[in-house]
Amino acid sequence: MRKNIVAGNWKMNTTLQEGVALAEEVNAAVKATKHNCDVVICVPFTHLATINDKTCRETLGLGAENCADHKSGAYTGEVSAAMVASTGATYVILGHSERRQYYGETSETLREKVALAFENNLTPIFCIGEVLEERENGTYFDVVKKQIVDALFHLSAEDFGKIILAYEPVWAIGTGKTATADQAEDMHAFIRGVIAEKYGNEVADNTSILYGGSCKPSNAKELFAKPDVDGGLIGGASLKCADFMGIVEAFN
Ligand code: 13P
C-alpha cells in the first residue's frame, strides 16, 4: 500500500548554519515522537551534504528542490541530478509551480529532469496544480490532467510507480488560503482515477499523492483524513520545527 509522507520544502530560506540547526531540531523531534508517516526535508542545494552527514541518516529523508535538465557540462550555475545524489539525498522536488512560473519550466524540460532523477536513483516529488483563474473558470481538472499526461505518461508503469505526486493549487501556496479538505479530496481522487486509467488500479493505489498549499497544524488532520490525501508538501510551516511537527503528528 502507498506510504503516508510529510515533506518540507524549505524553498530559498535559511543560511547553511540556520538550515543545519533546523534539520537537527527536526531530526531530534521526529526521533522522539511517534509518527505514522515518512518525513522528508527538501532543502537548498548548498545544505544537502552537510545535513546528510550530520542528521539525516537517523529519521529523515533528504531531498533537493530541483535538478538540472542536462546530465553535465557547460550549464553555469546548474546542479545535476548526479550531484544531488552524490550528497546522499534521495528525493528531488520537480515541477514546483514557482519553477514553472518564474523559471519557465515546461513539461518537456520536466521529462528530462524526471529521466535524470531516475538515472541517479532519486525519487521525484512531482508537483502539479492549477492557478486561481483555472480554479475559477472550472478548467482545473483538465489542467492538472494535462500536466500529468504531458510530463509523466511516457513512463513505464514501473517507473511511474516510483513517483510521488504533490497536488499544489497555486492559489493556495503561501497565501494562507488552503483548499478545503473536500476540494483536495476531489482533486486527489480525480488524479488517482487518471493514473488508474493509464496504469491500472494497482499502480494508482500505490501512488502517494501529497497536498501542498498553506498546510498547517490546524488543518493537516482534516486534510490527511481524506482517503486520497496521503500527506503534505509543506512550505512555510516546514521552517518552524514545532509547526512542522504539528503536521507530522496529524497522522497519529
Ligand atoms: P506553503 O505551505 O508555504 O503554502 O507552500 C506550499 C508549497 O509550495 C510547498 O511546495
Primary descriptors:
single chain; 252 residues; alpha/beta; TIM Barrel; eight-stranded parallel β-barrel; 12 helices; 8 strands; 46% helix; binds 1,3-dihydroxyacetonephosphate
Give the SSE map:
Elements (H helix, E strand, L loop, with lengths): L4 E5 L6 H17 L5 E5 L5 H9 L4 E4 L16 H6 L4 E4 L2 H7 L3 H13 L3 E6 L3 H5 L3 H13 L4 H4 L3 E4 L13 H19 L1 H6 L2 E4 L4 H8 L6 E4 L6 H8 L4
Parallel strand pairs: 1-2, 1-8, 2-3, 3-4, 4-5, 5-6, 6-7, 7-8
Helix pairs in contact: 1-2, 1-12, 5-7, 9-11, 11-12
The chain binds 1,3-dihydroxyacetonephosphate.
Q: Any overview of this molecule?
A:
This protein is an alpha/beta fold and 252 residues long. It has one domain: TIM Barrel (Alpha-Beta Barrel), CATH 3.20.20.70. 46% of the residues lie in helices and 14% in strands. It is built from twelve helices and eight strands. Strands 1-2-3-4-5-6-7-8 form an eight-stranded parallel beta barrel, surrounded by six helices. Helix 1 packs parallel to helix 2, helix 5 crosses helix 7 and helix 9 crosses helix 11. The longest helix has 19 residues. The structure holds 1,3-dihydroxyacetonephosphate. The site of 1,3-dihydroxyacetonephosphate (13P) has 14 residues, from strand 8.
